[in-house]
């Protein structure tokens, strides 16, 4: 299975593994299994992700909050979705970044200990009916207009910053700033 794994903050002793799937045939079933806790992962609309770094920042923040017992949401995986959003409204964040029954391209996020993702990887492949792709293919499924709208990024800002930096700045500072 094609996966992208990165260590998170050393204090968390966790890793984050990302899987990109396309041509999903069972989004409704996957969504239901995540909500029911049968799949311990975050499932994100691939269209809203400009760069894997964006997800890693959100996952790292979620892992740190979990270690400090300061989750805003009920689980580590909903915390990732919440941290991707610029909204402080949990329901809105989950609806915005979580998948719908019709999504065909998804990013799966698993936060785990070292050597702790093999069983989850098998569970994911067993339950997701779609094509596993290299994370390097992510830009093919990114919707730049939707991202700019979601994160309230105008074209002028992109003359002085790149899209990924603008997104990461917003999600990193959402507790401190109020966006227009």
Topology at a glance:
Layout: E1 4-7, E2 15-22, H1 27-35, E3 42-45, H2 52-67, H3 76-84, H4 90-97, E4 106-112, H5 118-127, E5 131-133, H6 144-150, H7 163-172
Describe the structure.
By secondary structure, the chain is α+β, with helices and mostly antiparallel strands. The chain contains seven helices and five strands. It has helices at residues 27-35, 52-67, 76-84, 90-97, 118-127, 144-150, 163-172; strands at residues 4-7, 15-22, 42-45, 106-112, 131-133. Strands 1, 2, 3, 4 and 5 form a five-stranded antiparallel β-sheet that branches. Strand 1 (4-7) and strand 2 form a beta hairpin. The longest helix has 16 residues, at 52-67. The protein is globular, with a radius of gyration of 15 Å. The N and C termini lie far apart (41 Å). The mean pLDDT is 92.
């Amino acid at each position: 299975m094609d996966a992208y794994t990165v260590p998170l903050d050393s204090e968390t002793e966790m890793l984050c593994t990302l899987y990109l799937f396309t041509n999903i045939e069972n989004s409704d079933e996957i969504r239901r299994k995540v909500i029911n806790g049968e799949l311990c992962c975050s499932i994100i609309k691939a269209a809203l992700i400009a760069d894997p770094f964006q997800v890693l920042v959100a996952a790292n923040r979620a892992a740190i909050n979990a270690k400090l017992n300061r989750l805003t949401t009920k689980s580590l995986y909903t915390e990732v979705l919440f941290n991707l959003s610029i909204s402080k409204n949990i329901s809105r964040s989950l609806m915005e970044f979580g998948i719908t029954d019709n999504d065909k391209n998804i990013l799966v996020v698993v936060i785990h200990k070292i050597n702790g993702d093999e069983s989850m990887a098998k569970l994911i492949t067993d339950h997701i009916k779609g094509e596993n792709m290299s994370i390097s293919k992510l830009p093919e499924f990114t919707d730049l207009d939707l991202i700019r709208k979601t994160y309230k990024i105008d074209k002028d800002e992109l003359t002085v910053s790149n899209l990924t930096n603008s997104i990461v700045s917003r999600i990193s500072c959402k507790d401190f700033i109020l966006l227009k």
